[in-house]
Amino acid sequence: MKELKVLALVGKEMKNRVSLRSLKNLRTLCLDGSNFDGTSTDVIGSLENLEILSFRDCYSMRELPREIGRLKQLRLLDTTNCEELEVIPHGIFSSLCRLEELYMVNSFNEWEIGRGREEKGMASISEVMSLSDHLKVLAIEIPSVIHLLTKDIVLKSPTIRFLIRCATWGRLFSEMSTYAFENCLEISESDARELEESQAVRLLLKKSKKLYLSEVKNFSVLTDLDQEGFQDLKDLDLWYCPHIEYLANGTSGFLTNLRFLKLGSCGVLKYVFSLSAARNLVQLQELNIDGCDQMEEIVSKQGEHEEEADMISFDKLTNLTLEGLGSLVGFFQAKKLYSNQEETTARVEHQSAGVFEKAIFPSKCISWFPSLEEVVLGRMKFEGVLFDLKNIPSGFQGFQNSRLPKKMHVKRCENLKTMGAVIPQRKKLENNLKKDSTSHDFSTSPTRSSNWCPAGCGCAPYSRPNAHRPIEILPRPIKVTPTNLEDSNDNDNLENLTVSDCNSMEVIFQLKGPKHEESSHSIEAFNKLSSLRLDRLPGLTRVWEMGSSQPMLTGSSFGNLKSLEVGFCNQLKYLFSSSIVKLLVSIEDIEVHNCEKMEEIVAAEEETDETITLPKVKSIKLESLPKLKYFCGEAYTLKLPSLELLEVDDVQNLSLLAPKLIATHPRLQVRTALGVAEWKGDLNATLRNIYVTRKGEDDEIEREDEHN
């Protein structure tokens, strides 16, 4: 035992005051998770050769033994998560002349300001910083940045790896539980003018890879804190910083390594980046902005040439969240489409066709996001469209990389009217044009432009030169998703769509083009959409809207939709038309609830005797639909060969799922609020029995009430 060099008593109860005095050669002692309380000095003894000492997760530890100051060979000390640690006597740290790694996050927080008092005082940050010429790793928590502002605080090693929280509340670093962290700094409730005067703070800011600032006042631009532009920074959080107006404006090399950016409740923040600063953000992966009431745009021209916008690309941005931005005009405000001279005629003609100019993502910046996976929009007063693709410049080279994100959540955007529209490919119409023209470059064929403009005003189409795939825009009022998506390719990437609490939404999917083209060719749309959730849309009248002359939807349109939930949409009278329901070959789960005017799930478009089959539907839930009479009416025969569960509750008028119902799953169960219903041989008979039983019970209750 005397030759023992490593001893780990992890999670042990040390009731018998274990003495380690004889272990003179011990180099590593790990008491992690034990009940060591720090009051028993003979536990550590005189381990003069000890190099690593860890008390991590010793929740009973209240005091760091003064005798630790005699461990002259100690290179690593860890008290992480010793939440009850209240006493570290002054002088311990200054005695540890070879200490290289100090881990104290989420433990001791009673640091003395300045050098501390010699006798009964606690340890001070000055003591710790006096070791910084040989300290390689420092992870500590201090109640305020004021501890770093005294003149004697000097950070001597520019290569030190650190995790420092100058805060009594806020976020906890996820890196706390590991030794593998990058340089992290959190500062709250401070004044930027004081931070600039501290050598230690300036160096920490400069070297930070993760920086969280909360309630830091008196800086209007981030470069006030680091003139070189935080070139090492990867993760930046700014919350409740009352004076910041923008992050950067025309700064070369600014935030070139930034991956994650969160901005919250910065009351006077008007925009985030200038065009030139935005060009640096080639590594940005996530952008989250919340509660910045004065923000008008994310990227701003600020006197720069608009051509700078053509050089911006957030190639790695996958997640974008914009919430609570009451003044937002758009992600970027490009110049207006029309000059003053062209204003009257052109604007009126385009507006008559339902074309919007106002967009959260205007056409100038739509190609900045080639890798976008998820978009969240919430609590905004913006009026207009979400994506406006109608002004893609002729010959623009970046549009081929733009696509819809995989997931989209739109909530509490009460005035949002539409997302916009794009037709990536127009094969049939293009072929017709080829027959009549020797030119295949649509961007240089003004004689053809009137065939493409939705207003019929003769404006030029927009396309990539020699690509033969012109882009047409036809946004319509009061919609949430792209209209007229035809022959979509991999750019039609939307997989999950959630729309909630948007009072102005009337139609979700509008599938119709200009009147003279509606029946001229087929459309493929949303062929990757797998989940659709619509909740609390009081103005919604149709989920799918078809043209008067129905376009031919290809079989893959909506062919991957598996889950559909619709709730609290009180203007909806039906969910699907028969032409739409035929496309839903993969749908498995349908839930409809709390829609006051819903009469049918599948509405008849014309009198016919067709058979409608939903081959993969496994469960249907119908709840609180007071006017629902049928899932599918008499015009069609309904087949549900895979249906295993039908849940019905508060659908008092539903006595038949469908008058013509055949082919249901042999293990089908029907459940009500009271449990599994008695099976009566087939589904319609079972529902009829529930209806008759319920009606009889209601009549009996009514008679009793009259009698009483």
Briefly, what is this?
With 708 residues, the protein is an alpha/beta fold. The chain has nine helices and 39 strands.
Describe the structure.
This protein has a 23-stranded mixed sheet. The longest helix is centred in the C-terminal third of the chain and has 25 residues, at 683-707. The protein has a domain at 219-336. It is 11% helix and 23% strand. By secondary structure, the protein is of the alpha/beta class. The chain is globular and about 95 Å long. Strand 38 and strand 39 (675-676) form a beta hairpin.
List the helices and strands and how they pair.
Layout: E1 6-8, E2 28-30, E3 52-54, E4 76-78, H1 92-95, E5 101-103, H2 125-129, E6 137-142, E7 161-166, E8 184-191, H3 192-195, H4 199-207, E9 210-217, E10 235-239, E11 260-264, E12 273-274, H5 275-278, E13 286-290, E14 297-300, E15 319-323, E16 330-332, H6 343-352, E17 359-361, E18 374-378, E19 384-387, E20 407-411, E21 416-418, H7 427-436, E22 496-500, E23 507-511, E24 522-523, E25 531-535, E26 542-546, E27 552-553, E28 563-567, E29 574-577, H8 578-581, E30 589-593, E31 600-603, E32 610-613, E33 619-623, E34 630-632, E35 636-640, E36 645-649, E37 661-664, E38 669-672, E39 675-676, H9 683-707
Parallel strand pairs: 1-2, 2-3, 3-4, 4-5, 5-6, 6-7, 7-8, 8-9, 9-10, 10-11, 11-13, 12-14, 13-15, 14-16, 15-18, 17-19, 18-20, 19-21, 20-22, 22-25, 23-26, 24-27, 25-28, 28-30, 29-31, 30-33, 31-34, 32-35, 33-36, 35-37, 36-38
Antiparallel strand pairs: 38-39
